[in-house]
Description:
alpha/beta, Rossmann fold, Arc Repressor Mutant, subunit A, globular, Sig_transdc_resp-reg_receiver, DNA-binding, Sig_transdc_resp-reg_C-effctor
Amino acid sequence: xxxxxxxxxxxxxxxxxxxxxxxxxxxxxxxxxxxxxxxxxxxxxxxxxxxxxxxxxxxxxxxxxxxxxxxxxxxxxxxxxxxxxxxxxxxxxxxxxxxxxxxxxxxxxxxxxxxxxxxxxxxxxxxxxxxxxxxxxxxxxxxxxxxxxxxxxxxxxxxxxxxxxxxxxxxxxxxxxxxxxxxxxxxxxxxxxxxxxxxxxx
Length: 202
């Protein structure tokens, strides 16, 4: 059985992606870490980690240093960077530092899972997938990004400088478009359909 370590500090996004991976790839053991500190400990405790899916922007480490620290602690570790930033120069930078590939979080879930599966099986370089689904308005995308980041309605109000009633209206529209009835279901659907948009500032 292959082992994959998912490292991301956005709890709802990480748990939703982990759930999706477990459903789609039952033959893969999925571990989780919400910080670089926990990820490094996992790498020491778990000798048989076949692939790390890494968000560079963690609460205890930022940018390319995150990748460098992880690979310094475990040389030869296979890493795919998953980021909310669609930056082609960053894709080149992470490959130069030893990552197998770079995938935007806005990739369709099917494409993301397929690429990670192929990478696990043969270390085929993970590449960016262009096909995405995005039926939400720009403001709804921002609300969804904050929802995935685990923000409450009040915190979303502060982030976007809008009233709580406006946030509720956007959430109702998002729930309707995603055909869900709760915040958690919305996050799972966003990951499954590739509709996740990073929260402002991420």
